[in-house]
Amino acid sequence: PSSLPEKKVIFKGLTVNKEDMNKLMLTPLIHYPLQGGSALITFEEAKVAQRIIEMREHTVELSCGELEELDHCRVRVQAVPVEIPLPSALEMRLSQSSRSILLSDLPSLDISREALLDKLEIFFSKTKNGGSEVESREFLEDSDQVVLTFTQDGVAEPLIEREHIQVSIGTGEYKVKISPCMNGDISNLQLQPSCCPRTVLLLGIPDVLSEESMRDALEIHFQKASRGGGEVDALAYVPAGQTAVAVFVEDTG
User: Fold this and answer.
1) What is the pTM assigned to this prediction?
2) C-alpha distances in angstroms, 77 versus 3, 47, 48, 54, 216?
3) In the chain, helix, strand, coil percent, each to 5?
4) 3-class secondary structure, 171
5) Are 95 and 182 in contact (CB under 8 A)?
6) Is 81 left (phi over 0), alpha (psi -120 to 50) or beta?
7) Tell me: the pLDDT tens digits for 173-207?
8) Which family does it belong to (predicted)?
9) Cβ neighbours of residue 120 closer than 8 Å, sequence gap 6 or more
10) What is the pLDDT of residues 36-53, one digit of tens each?
């Protein structure tokens, strides 16, 4: 208010770089559908994959006793780039759960995770500990944090205000941190196609060999430098009439 006197202040706190704030780390886990008569081949080097795509059409020689009429035959396959949609812009709306708490700094005990969840549920179900009946409990994926959800409103907030609590487990007392449980909803997501640098999609593969034999024939062909290939890191083949889903993860190499 303008009626208050002006007062000069000195800031003695810590500052951080703006770039370090409000960051969201995304771990790619892309599910890519594959139709029958196709294969995905990943090379150790991106330049090999690019060369295979530029050549476009490839004649693969098959030599196998499974072919009754011909000992040798050739099939033509098409090599195309693999394009997958990746987020280019992401907006999320965060909200605090009214019935859930987040537990961290949990003790490392010689018991299973399920047994630890039982102990936590028993402790936080008691009103003398500030809790109430627990509706659900779960470990967050890839972390040592637990989310407890109560059946009633008004239980989570007083616990969160305490920030820490001494939890009795067996004969021990352990200091556990209590934090708000935040839920995130995606309000806006924009995608743009991204080309896999080391992976090639092969199309038009006829169903003339068994799955294992065709996979071997493709790998033999595309690892030969004389045919534009190179060292193969992985190969997945889907015979005609079948479907599959390939999972792409972050390329840390």
Assistant:
1) 0.59
2) 81, 20, 17, 13, 15
3) 20, 45, 35
4) coil
5) yes
6) beta
7) 999 999 999 888 888 888 888 899 999 999 999 99
8) Belongs to the NMI family.
9) 103, 137, 146, 148, 167
10) 999 999 999 999 999 999
